[in-house]
């Protein structure tokens, strides 16, 4: 039992309902059903007489508990819940006890309906449904797992810092297939809670059961992080919350929620720090490519219809897409400005409106076509530090890099300073509106400064090289030396994994 405050506790008789057996109270056990508010959710927890550990615990929902008769309640504990799974009968000693339990259950359900979770308050439900459906598909998990820069860096960061995991309770936030949970178990974690809201949780259970040596220490918790309740606080949180430009999908806010509600004070976070980096770029070919996409609307006799009135709106639409691809470092024409986020102290409000001031000096005379961005994150372990970087020129990841195009390029002399700001405004579709303003010196003495502005949607990118990259990655075999080698040699410190997979530190 933990120090969290129970909403209520009720004396009941508990019996498990076997397949086809019906209800039998011959071996029923006296116990208590607790309703516990924790971590943004409401937890049902049953304990039997003489035992402090829970017989089972699961989220309070309309699907997990209902009143069958005046004194009988039925509970369906899902396979992803903690403790025993199955269907249970709870019999109250009298109508007063049953009425109190029914009222407590209804209050808990009403609280969920009325207040909603932090996630539901900030997220359009349609967007959330699409998001969790996407990540519930194996092909998308494969895309991430086959990013060996990403996966190998996480493996090395966790295994090289065994002291941070051995004997500890770990929370895997947005666990997906559970790969980080397995890494934590390999590093000696006593218990790993793999929290996953999508249907991928079922596949995670399958992998857990197929790998019992590690899986016995992993417990899959199906639900949104903002709505689940864990039986204990975690010593360490691991997560891969980064999206395009670090913040797309707004998963970082979920990571911060887990820090506040699921992590012990002073607990560790993997990763601990994230940075967004920006530089201006010159790429006439990209500018022409995007502009040419609207050429269709130049037709003044398309089956007898003049389309030219829509030419400018079409141009605006295409330039409102951020471009996601692997950048040739040679197109970068300035120094770099950066924005740092410490996940140990940042707040959700810090991520709702992000402003990055820009002051960038051009290295050569050129046309500036926009702003290039990338990110990195730091795993700040006790034993070693690892950076996972998506910078141009380093091995490509599934995040690539991102560019914000200007509708009107700026002409800048060598040494000229481009100023402005990049502002990211969060919206309920789990992404950001991107506002870019760049100002360059006048084209001639005494003239007005050049200023260009763009508004782009981070959620609707132009994936310029995605298909080719996926095809290439599918042909690359996974590195085999890491887990198998460490297991065979009894050595969990995979110092060589990062070098073998082409990782780089920033």
Automatic annotation (TrEMBL):
Q: Which CDD domains match?
A: AdoMet_MTases
A GO term, aspect molecular function: protein-arginine omega-N monomethyltransferase activity
The subcellular location is: Cytoplasm; Nucleus
| Main location as per UniProt | cytoplasm
Q: Which GO terms describe its biological process?
A: methylation
Q: What EC identifiers does the entry list?
A: 2.1.1.319
What are the annotated GO cellular component locations?
A: cytoplasm; nucleus
**Which reaction(s) are listed as its catalytic activity?**
L-arginyl-[protein] + 2 S-adenosyl-L-methionine = N(omega),N(omega)-dimethyl-L-arginyl-[protein] + 2 S-adenosyl-L-homocysteine + 2 H(+)
Pfam families found in the cross-reference section: PrmA (PF06325), PRMT_C (PF22528)
Entry keywords, A to Z: Chromatin regulator, Cytoplasm, Methyltransferase, Nucleus, S-adenosyl-L-methionine, Transcription, Transcription regulation, Transferase
According to the entry, every stretch annotated as the Protein arginine N-methyltransferase domain falls at: 277-437
PROSITE patterns assigned to the protein according to its UniProt record, in alphabetical order:
SAM_MT_PRMT
Q: Looking at the keywords, is Transcription present?
A: yes
- Enzyme class comes to transferase
InterPro entries per the UniProt record, alphabetical:
Arg_MeTrfase, PRMT_dom, SAM-dependent_MTases_sf
Q: What is the recorded name of this protein?
A: type I protein arginine methyltransferase
- What organism does the UniProt record list as the source? Elliptochloris bilobata
């Amino acid at each position: 039992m933990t120090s969290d405050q129970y909403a209520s506790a009720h004396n009941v008789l508990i019996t498990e309902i076997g397949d086809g057996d019906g209800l039998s109270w011959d071996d029923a056990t006296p116990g208590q059903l607790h309703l516990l508010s924790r971590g943004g959710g409401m937890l049902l927890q049953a304990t039997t007489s003489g035992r402090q550990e829970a017989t089972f615990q699961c989220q309070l929902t309309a699907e997990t508990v209902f009143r069958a008769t005046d004194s009988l309640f039925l509970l369906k504990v899902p396979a992803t819940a903690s403790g025993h799974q199955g269907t249970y009968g709870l019999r109250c000693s009298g109508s007063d006890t049953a009425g109190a339990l029914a009222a407590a259950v209804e209050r808990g359900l009403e609280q969920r309906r009325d207040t909603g979770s932090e996630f539901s308050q900030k997220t359009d439900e349609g967007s959330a449904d699409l998001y969790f459906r996407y990540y519930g598909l194996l092909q998308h998990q494969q895309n991430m797992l086959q990013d060996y820069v990403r996966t190998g860096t996480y493996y090395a960061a966790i295994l090289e810092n065994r002291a941070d995991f051995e004997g500890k309770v770990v929370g895997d936030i947005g666990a997906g297939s559970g790969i980080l949970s397995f890494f934590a178990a390999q590093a000696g974690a006593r218990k790993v809670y793999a929290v996953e809201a999508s249907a991928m949780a079922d596949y995670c259970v399958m992998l857990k059961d197929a790998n019992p040596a590690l899986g016995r220490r992993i417990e899959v918790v199906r639900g949104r992080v903002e709505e689940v309740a864990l039986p204990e606080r975690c010593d360490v949180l691991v997560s891969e919350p980064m999206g395009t430009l670090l913040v797309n999908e707004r998963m970082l806010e979920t990571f911060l929620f887990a820090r506040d509600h699921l992590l012990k004070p002073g607990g560790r976070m993997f990763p601990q720090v994230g940075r967004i980096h920006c530089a201006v770029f010159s790429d006439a070919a990209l500018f022409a490519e995007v502009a040419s996409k609207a050429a269709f609307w130049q037709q003044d006799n398309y089956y007898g219809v003049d389309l030219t009135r829509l030419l400018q709106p079409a141009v605006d639409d295409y330039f409102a897409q951020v471009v996601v691809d692997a950048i040739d470092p040679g197109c970068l024409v300035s120094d770099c400005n950066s924005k740092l986020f410490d996940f140990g102290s940042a707040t959700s409000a810090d991520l709702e409106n992000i402003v990055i001031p820009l002051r960038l000096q051009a290295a050569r005379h050129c046309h500036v076509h926009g702003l290039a961005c990338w990110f990195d994150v730091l795993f700040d372990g006790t034993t070693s530090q690892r950076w996972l970087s998506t910078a141009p020129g380093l091995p490509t990841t599934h995040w690539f890099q991102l560019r914000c195009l200007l509708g009107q390029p700026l002409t800048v002399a060598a040494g000229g300073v481009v100023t402005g700001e990049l502002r990211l405004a969060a919206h309920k579709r789990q992404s950001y509106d991107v506002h870019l303003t760049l100002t360059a010196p006048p084209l001639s003495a005494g003239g007005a400064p050049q200023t260009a502005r763009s508004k782009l949607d981070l959620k609707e990118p132009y994936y310029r090289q995605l298909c080719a990259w996926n095809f290439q990655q599918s042909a690359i075999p996974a590195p085999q030396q890491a887990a198998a080698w460490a297991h065979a040699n009894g050595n969990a410190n995979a110092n060589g994994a990062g070098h073998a997979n082409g990782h780089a530190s920033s």
